[in-house]
Every structure is written in structure tokens, then in C-alpha cells.
Amino acid sequence: MRSTRLTALREPGRRIGTIALGAAFVLGVLATPAQAASWSSSLSGAGPGFESRRWYDSGGSTNIKFTGCSDDGSNRVANVTLRKDTLGPDPSYTTAAFTNCFTGSSATSTGNWSDHGSGDYYFAVNYGASGLRVWVDSLTVTY
């Protein structure tokens, strides 16, 4: 008698546990964690006002990293400006002066920009400057 009562009590608990485990599995499979997207490239003789390719950012910070930089003078700086592609004049965000990447082929310079909302973004090199061109062995944009 006691054994039948315990079995009767265990069965609903087992069903609830199975349903809860199944629901947790489905939610775990369907829920995608927030992941940063990125793209990589290089620059060859990017002149003043050069604009990178555009990328869509749904919100969050942006990180731009240059590795192995050189220029056609002795300036040894690449001024990198994050910009948002809009119908009107494109807003400019903080300009980062990349200098460390000029110290060696594996040296890097990194700029970090805070969240400016969703939209299409790009970066400009030496925006508003004249004359200098920049070469970058490797660049990565993470957003």
C-alpha cells in the first residue's frame, strides 16, 4: 500500500521535472546570446578623408584596431574618426590618434567608441587633413 502511494506521488513529480527540463532545453537552444560582430581588412594608401566600408550596428560599443601602420611622410599618426551614415550630414564621433601601430609591424593601436544607437557606421582616416596617405597591414572592426 505504501509503495503504491509513493509511486503515485512520484509520477506527477517526474512529469513536471521532464516538462521543466524540456522547456529549459528549448529556451536554451532558441535564445541566442548577444555576440559582437566584426570584420577585418587592410588599408593601402588611404588618403585624407578615406571612408571605410559601412556596417550595421544594432547598438553597443565599437572597437577599431590597426596593426602595422606606415605613412608617406614622417607624421606617423592615423586620425581615425567613427561616423554614422545618415541622410543628412554624417555625425562624427571622437577622433582617435593611432600612433603606436607605427612602431613596428606587429604593433597595434586601438580606438574604443561608446554606444551611439543603431545604424550604419563607417570610419574615416585623417578626415579634413591634407596630404598624408596611410597603409595598415591589418585592421579589425568589432561592434
* Secondary-structure element series: HEEEEEEEEE
Q: Report how far apart the termini are.
A: 65 Å
User: What would you call the shape?
Assistant: globular
Mean pLDDT: 83
Number of strands: 9
Rg (CA only): 26 Å
What structural category do the secondary elements indicate?
alpha+beta
Sheet with most strands: 5 strands, antiparallel
pLDDT < 50 stretches? 20-33
Portion of residues in helices? 10-25%
Q: Please work out how many helical segments DSSP would assign.
A: 1
What fraction of residues sit in β-strands? 35-45%
Q: Quaternary status of these chains?
A: single chain
List keywords for this structure.
single chain; alpha+beta; five-stranded antiparallel sheet; four-stranded antiparallel sheet; 1 helix; 9 strands; 20% helix
Task: Give the SSE layout.
Layout: H1 2-30, E1 38-46, E2 50-51, E3 55-57, E4 62-71, E5 78-85, E6 92-98, E7 108-113, E8 119-125, E9 134-142
Task: Write structural notes for this entry.
The termini are far apart. 20% of the residues lie in helices and 43% in strands. The radius of gyration is 26 Å and the shape is globular. The chain is an alpha+beta fold and 143 residues long.
In short:
This protein is α+β, with helices and mostly antiparallel strands and 143 residues long. It has one helix at 2-30; strands spanning 38-46, 50-51, 55-57, 62-71, 78-85, 92-98, 108-113, 119-125, 134-142. Helix content is 20%, strand content 43%.
